[in-house]
């Protein structure tokens, strides 16, 4: 069993996301450490890209801010090295195919493994999962409300956990989640005994508690990235409090 799967053992996992380098690398390092201390079970690190098509306005703007501030893939690797001095929980990269291609797939996966990355989320799978598995990195599969007939097939090949996308469209907070998550999770579990975590649109403890009735974990991005935008370098205590409040409803 992988370290990522282990993070779901006997508990509901809380998985926060943050954009690397927004507002700056030092703040991201502090924020990741704070999230781990506040009870995060796995942390997703977004590697910024100039055309993040799957993201809503909050994370798009964070990508732009981070790139303007000079973030590069190499700087993200250095950042993870620094984070790994204190943070022991699984870390997952979330990025776009172009970022990996332009860096060089083999080099990207090798460096990821060397700095202590446990998993990777990229929408396109075929080109990457054979390389990631060579370096012991879980390739995390996404399923969406539109995946329907393909859920079983995706689940059979999944590693770490399955990322259940709760809403159609881009990332961002939602006032209401209408997708039948229990049906989605059931379809995955029928194909493979693997944890399922729900993301896209979750921002409040109430939503997290509701989703956790059906899934093994909850993923939150935009609500955290919003705090980076609102408070800048002073976001750490706000992020810590937020993660603690979200994790408390999952216990």
Which SSEs are present, and which pair or pack?
Layout: H1 3-6, E1 13-19, H2 25-37, E2 43-46, H3 57-68, H4 73-83, E3 91-94, H5 97-103, H6 105-115, E4 119-121, H7 129-134, E5 138-139, E6 141-143, H8 151-157, E7 162-165, H9 181-191, E8 196-199, H10 205-212, E9 217-220, H11 222-231, H12 236-248
Treating each run of at least 4 consecutive H or I residues as one helix, how many helices?
12
Write down the overall geometry. globular
Uncertain spans, ≥5 residues at pLDDT below 50? 169-175
How are the strands of the biggest sheet laid out side by side? 5-4-3-2-1-9-8-7-6
Distance between the termini: 23 Å
Strand content: 5-15%
In round numbers, the mean pLDDT is 92
Helix/strand class: alpha/beta
Number of strands: 9
Q: Using only CA atoms, what is the Rg? A: 16 Å
Helix % is 40-55%
The largest pleated sheet is described as:
9 strands, parallel
Which sequence of SSEs, written as H and E, runs from N to C?
Answer: HEHEHHEHHEHEEHEHEHEHH
Describe the fold and architecture.
The protein has 251 residues and is of the alpha/beta class. The chain is built from 12 helices and 9 strands. It has helices at residues 3-6, 25-37, 57-68, 73-83, 97-103, 105-115, 129-134, 151-157, 181-191, 205-212, 222-231, 236-248; strands at residues 13-19, 43-46, 91-94, 119-121, 138-139, 141-143, 162-165, 196-199, 217-220. The chain has a 9-stranded parallel beta sheet with strand order 5-4-3-2-1-9-8-7-6. Helix 7 links the parallel strand 4 (119-121) and strand 5. Helix 2 runs parallel beside helix 4 (73-83), helix 8 (151-157) crosses helix 9 and helix 11 runs antiparallel to helix 12. Mean pLDDT is 92; it is low at 169-175.
């Amino acid at each position: 069993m992988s370290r990522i799967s282990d993070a779901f053992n006997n508990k509901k996992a809380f998985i926060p996301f943050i954009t690397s380098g927004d507002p700056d690398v030092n703040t991201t390092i502090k924020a990741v450490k704070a999230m781990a201390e506040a009870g995060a079970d796995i942390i997703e690190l977004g590697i910024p890209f100039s055309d993040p098509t799957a993201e809503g306005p909050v994370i798009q703007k964070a990508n732009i801010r981070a790139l303007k501030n000079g973030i590069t893939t190499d700087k993200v690797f250095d950042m993870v090295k620094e984070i790994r001095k204190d943070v022991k929980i699984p870390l997952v990269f979330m990025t776009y195919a172009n970022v990996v291609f332009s860096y060089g797939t083999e080099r990207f996966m090798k460096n990821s493994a060397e700095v202590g990355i446990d998993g990777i989320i990229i929408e396109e799978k075929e080109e990457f999962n054979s390389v990631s598995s060579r370096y012991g990195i879980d390739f995390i599969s996404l399923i969406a409300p539109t995946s329907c007939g393909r859920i079983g097939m995706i689940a059979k090949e999944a590693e770490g956990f399955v990322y259940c996308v709760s809403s159609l469209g881009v990332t961002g907070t939602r006032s209401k989640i209408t997708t039948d998550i229990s049906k989605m999770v059931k379809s995955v579990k029928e194909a493979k005994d693997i944890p399922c975590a729900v993301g896209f649109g979750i921002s409040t403890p109430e939503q997290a508690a509701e989703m956790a009735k059906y899934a093994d974990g909850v993923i939150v991005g935009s609500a955290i990235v919003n705090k980076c935008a609102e408070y800048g370098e002073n976001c750490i205590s706000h992020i810590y409090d937020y993660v603690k409040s979200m994790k408390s409803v999952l216990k």
